[in-house]
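Page 37, continued from 36.
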């Protein structure tokens, strides 16, 4: 996502904004990685990367708004939060030692279906299809 936002800033004629964002992300990631890797090992590196990426996202968003471009943050954050919730659910299920492949496939399928129902475009198309189906059934009766 940050690459796309960086390319957008360059296309808007502001390559220095993209450079500053990437430089700040790199410095913050490096500085955070030293204590976090010491404390949590490889998970510390992941937390450092995640933190610097989130910071870069919001800095890029600020710069995009500064050049009169906007993005829908909620659309991005909603998907991110859903992924975190799904990971949490899968980890909880894993703690109950459900090791059956078929059960895990069904769970992932159901979580994917929930995600699709929450996504607005898919939900709107599903509602339109449902309404067409109901109208067709009414005409048959």
């Amino acid at each position: 996502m940050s690459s796309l936002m960086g390319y957008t800033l360059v296309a808007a004629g502001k390559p220095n904004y993209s450079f500053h964002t990437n430089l700040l992300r790199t410095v913050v990631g490096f500085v955070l990685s030293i204590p976090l890797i010491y404390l949590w090992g490889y998970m510390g590196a992941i937390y450092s990367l995640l933190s610097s990426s989130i910071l870069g996202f919001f800095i890029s968003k600020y710069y995009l708004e500064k050049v009169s471009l906007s993005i829908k943050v909620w659309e991005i954050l909603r998907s991110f939060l859903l992924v975190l919730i799904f990971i949490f659910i899968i980890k909880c299920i894993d703690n109950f030692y459900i090791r059956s492949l078929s059960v895990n496939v069904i769970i992932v399928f159901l979580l994917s279906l929930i995600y699709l129902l929450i996504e607005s475009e898919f939900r709107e198309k599903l509602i339109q299809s449902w309404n067409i189906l109901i109208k067709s059934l009414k005409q048959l009766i």
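The mean pLDDT is 76. Flag for discussion at group meeting. The CA atoms of residues 15 and 88 lie 38 Å apart.
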